[in-house]
Amino acid sequence: MRGISRMVVSSFVGFVLVLTTLLAVVPTTEAQLRRDFYADVCPNVESIVRSAVTKKFKQTFVTVPATVRLFFHDCFVQGCDASVMIASDGSNTAEKDHPDNLSLAGDGFDTVIKAKAAVDAVPGCKNKVSCADILVMATRDVISLARGPSYAVELGRKDGLVSRASDVEGKLPQPTFNLNQLNAMFAANGLSQADMIALSAAHTVGFSHCSKFADRIYNFSRTNPVDPTLNPTYAKKLQEMCPKDVDPRIAIDMDPNTPRRFDNMYFKNLQQGMGLFTSDQILFTDPRSRSTVKVWAHSGQTFYKAFINAMTKLGRVGVKTGSDGNIRTDCGVFNS
Known about the structure:
Layout: H1 2-25, H2 29-32, H3 45-59, H4 63-76, H5 106-120, H6 131-145, H7 179-187, H8 193-200, E1 207-209, H9 214-218, H10 232-241, E2 251-253, H11 265-271, H12 278-285, H13 287-298, H14 300-314
Antiparallel strand pairs: 1-2
Helix pairs in contact: 3-5, 3-6, 4-5, 4-6, 5-6, 8-14, 11-13, 12-13, 13-14
Subcellular location: Secreted
Domain Plant heme peroxidase family profile: 32-335
Protein name: Peroxidase
């Protein structure tokens, strides 16, 4: 019996050692992503990207919302792997050509492409930095350039090997969403209600086409053509900027007060009934999220901390590592 006991103990110890060894070598997203990921191969990558992004920003402010939106749309479909940047070809319709992505401004793509070129022009850095990581860095940089918070980013993502328009369906928040729909979609990506509210505040910069909110100012219901949650004065201004017969592609600022500054004005606007989308205004009209809106409307610094935390969590969604991805030589084309 004593010999059998020794064998059992020995087997158990051996199992634990094998399991421990396996766990030690299996890469995890947490272990893969780190702030100094490129320290040995391209130590100045962040300053290189920042310089390229700053140059693009000086050309047009659209760089800011376009890059932020590109990052969001990328991470919500297939994870943060730059799959949204792939161009369609004869055999495949890529993510960027799904109807929900057709409104992505070209300046976001151009920002990443130019930053990638700047990185690859540096000896030792060529083909060492993924497009996915460049998009993460560029997003942080445009937010900072718009006088928003600056923060450290985690790096180490590979570029995705798949990009299909069919994968976009049902993966991106819609302007008509209510709180339950918003929470469910963000929860599917490991993000909380607080994360969702913080990330929604990216609407403090950028623009929207009239077609995206026309129903709120003309066709809300038979008895109320205008959404009653809209501030009447704001609704009238929206009608002036987007008359019924206007080209639906005409765009207006999403934040009517500080459209070129990344700040907490978004939440102050919600308190005044000036959320452009139903999915914006619902954050204040629904009592489950109203208190968070009030706190962040009062304290920009508190909002910034929550936003940085949410962006960090978003940047971990669906990260590709090892053989699940690679580093593209051209952000818009899969490596041959």
